[in-house]
Amino acid sequence: MPPIPQIKPVRLKELALPQETVLPNGVRLYRIPGARQGVVRFDVLVKGGYGVQEKPLQAMFVNRMLREGAGDFTAEEISRRLDYYGAGIDMYSSQGCNHLTLFALSKHFVPLLALLETIVKHPLFPEKNLETVKSNNKSYYAVNSRKVDVVSQRYFENSLWGEGHPLGHIVRPEDYDAITRDDLLSYYSKVYNSKNCTLFISGDADDAMIAEISKCFGTGEWGSGEAVADVEVAAPRQISGVRKITVEGTMQSAVKLGFMALDSSHPDFFKFRFLTVLLGGYFGSRLMSNIREENGYTYHIAAELDAYGKRNAFMISSEADHDNISPLLKEVYHELERIVNEPIPNEEVELVRNYISGELCREYEGHSAKSEVFINTWLSGEKFSSVNDYIKVVAEVSADELHEVARKYLNRGNMIEIIAGK
Q1: pTM for the model
Q2: Which is it for the CA torsion 31, 35, 40, 46, positive or negative?
Q3: Cα angle vertex 240, ends 234, 243, to 5°?
Q4: Are strands 311-321 and 301-308 parallel, antiparallel or unpaired?
Q5: Under 8 Å between Cβ of 201 and 41
Q6: How crowded is residue 362: how many other Cβ atoms within 10 Å of its Cβ?
Q7: Residue 246: its H or E element
Q8: Buried b vs exposed e over 1-28: b needs ≥16 C-beta within 10 Å?
Q9: Beta-strand relationship, 241-246 and 416-421
């Protein structure tokens, strides 16, 4: 009988970092090494986002409307061309950046790149399409306003940043009505230009494709605006305490509680990130074991870190029957007190270490997921090498260090508590 294979802990190797190329017009292109699988991901990042908008939803609508007609292409022609090549373009805005991501087969990249160039540089913002997009998004807003998880997230961010802050504003139906084509043109002319542009490419990209990127986005200045200063999101004006929001006709209530945690540059950040997983970041976590497995109050509960540029919010989220909300919250605070007041067993730390290492192996395997990791690092203002710093912390952090981090930062008095539902 052959011997039983020895079980060894997962140990991650350092990731190869993106290779920077400065194109002739000053645009930076980051090439992420990866397996050649015949597919490519190309990201166009334009500095700005919510941080420089003059009206709520302005950045989001500009980005969304780019594919509603550009150059000689109508919205229908853009969609047909993407379908023909089996490609897709994702568009969204964050607090400091506007994102456009092209997913394509490598063999079709060049014609799709030309299409993307037209979308970015020559949008039409047709009035008729804008009204349709506004109507559709307003309908989505109405539907989401009946979802307790969405409503609780809106009010959590409102409490996290404070009313009047661009990230704390709770969108209203009238905000959709207020957006005009002139708003889109004003925002576009201010931020969409080569001075604000950064590019990432990953997957099966060769030198010929890089040359095409340089031709489309790196030759000569494009766009009429000036460089936007690094968007420094204003400091949060956190409103701690309990807020209850009624959502009619719901079967369950949603809970979100947390606080503004450590900046990405803080020396304890990666340890706090590890601690968050231990508390509620995997199926066997403390919160899941107590609140789902032992008490049956909910199907799912999680602790996570939400990134807002360099700032990170710690948040615990769950949904439960209305009658189970109070006992659920009691057990959440019980687990927070335990992790602050009791030593963390070494065996638990090793279990979580192996879990995180396995998840990182999966996360770092695909080129697209790897792009997300490095783009998020870039958005936080950190060096790409910080990705490997986290790998090192995962491999080396001790139970005593994690307990010290818990005692320093998991303070119940800082908590925002949002309950949305009945």
Answers
A1: 0.92
A2: negative
A3: 115
A4: antiparallel
A5: yes
A6: 9
A7: strand 241-246
A8: eeeeeeeeeeebeebebbeebebeeebb
A9: parallel
Q: What is the pLDDT of residue 81?
A: 96
CA distance 301 to 15: 31
Average pLDDT, the chain: 92
pLDDT over 60 at 233, yes or no = no
Q: CA quadruple 373, 360, 291, 338: dihedral positive or negative?
A: negative
CATH superfamily assigned to domain 19-217: Metalloenzyme, LuxS/M16 peptidase-like (3.30.830.10)
d(CA 131, CA 137): 10
Helical residues (DSSP H) of 244-283, grouped into ranges: 269-280
Number of Cβ within a 10 Å radius of residue 274: 22
Q: Where are the beta strands (DSSP E) in 123-208?
A: 197-203
Residue with tokens 């989220």: 317
User: Domain boundaries in the chain?
Assistant: 19-217, 241-421
Closest CA to 99 of 166, 49, 41, 167: 49
**The CATH homologous superfamily of the domain defined by 241-421:** Metalloenzyme, LuxS/M16 peptidase-like (3.30.830.10)
Closest C-alpha to 125, from 178, 58, 55: 58
Q: Name, in order, each residue with C-beta under 8 angstroms of 365's C-beta and a sequence gap of 6 or more.
A: none
Smallest CA-to-CA distance from 220 within 20, 21, 27 is with 27
pLDDT in tens, 134-192: 999 999 999 999 999 999 999 999 998 887 787 888 999 999 999 999 999 999 999 99
